[in-house]
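User: I need a structural model of DDE Tnp4 domain-containing protein from Salix suchowensis for a docking pre-check later this week. Nothing fancy, just the predicted structure tokens so I can convert them on my end. Input:
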Amino acid sequence: MESKKLAALLSSLVSELLVLVLLLFPSDSCNSNSWDFNSNSHGILFRIIRHYLSCQELATSLSLFPISKKRKRTQLREAGSEPTHEDRDLERGSRLGELNRVAHNPDSFKATFRMRSSTFEWLSGLLEPLLECRDPIGTPINLSSELRLGIGLFRLATGSSYIEIAERFGVTESVTRFCAKQLCRVLCTNFRFWIAFPAPTELELVSKDIEGLTGLPNCCGVIDCTRFNVVKRNDCKLTSDDEVQDDSIAVQIVVDSSSRILSIVAGFRGDKNDSRILKSTTLFHDIEGRRLLNGTPVIVNGVAIDQYLIGDGGYPLLPWLMIPFVDAVPGSCEEKFNAANNLMHVFALRTIASLKNWGVLNKPIEEEFKTAVAFIGACSILHNVLLMREDDSALIDAGDYSLYDQGSQFYKDAMTEENLTEKKASDSRRALATRVTEFS
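Assistant: Understood. Predicted structure tokens for DDE Tnp4 domain-containing protein:
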């Protein structure tokens, strides 16, 4: 079969599969101010789809899918006649197509869209059915899927204002707003499965990778929390004394040793401390209810070590959540455990740094709170997509990742005496400290 026909067939199959998933698992995430996702919400089906989409054969086939196949042909009009709305849209599309040809220069493409051109083409083909089917009622956009994707990604990648994007792409400001929000809506509603807590078999591989790096057995990831500032500007009167309302969004993530996001919760107000946020999430209740991290324990020095996460001092010590020792003596096994804990923490901080490298997130987000949450969710999904595609645009090397460590600002009595003396958790942590000493 010819490559183009094969690509079209695969694209059609993917589209039909996505529609089926949406019918079976409807999502109301974009109608809420919060975004809380873990694999228990959608089960094994989403993990199967994610694996299917990540196959190299499919990625290669979709990258062959022809671009701009729905771009309308220009119709000649009589000399001196006024251009119609369609004429204007076509002229804008022409200028936009020219910009995309320039942007395909490898030197500028990453700066413009934060991904390689091959990833952009693959993503455009995959999202095409959803990007082109939801125009505003009565006002069709008449832009192809890759142009809509380009406008949305440009907003996320650079953080440019809608006015700046409109001028650069030759469209109206309302079109830029629509394309940016539509991209986030499609990703957060239809492609949430790109962030999924691993199935038990995959979780074993995650644990082995972590143990090989740190000496910590049965560790399934690291949890951390960061904040994104939001600014809502009330500039309806267009005066020099515009009212500015400051807010922040707390975002909790769990990542593995490759900085892949396994779970994310976004939407809590930023003034809540990390421990309170954790206890308010479905992740916490799923783990406490033994629906997650319920694999076979590992015996270390006679102690059964359940599957667990690594956290910093902003979290409580729990049987499934190991935090650093306080005031560890230099050279002791406790200090070496803390060093392994800090190494794991770097993976989370690197993920946070990479998320904040998206232009729209590296400064106060000038959007409604709900829209800002959607932007964070979309950038998180794209972060995992880039890792899946082995696109080196995903991660940044910040050197000193402590600059992104906000946890100490939100400890606020996160630990209690009851947590610190809980026997099972304390015994597990001591046994792990001994194992790390043997590893080093």
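Before docking, keep this in mind: The chain has a mean pLDDT of 78.
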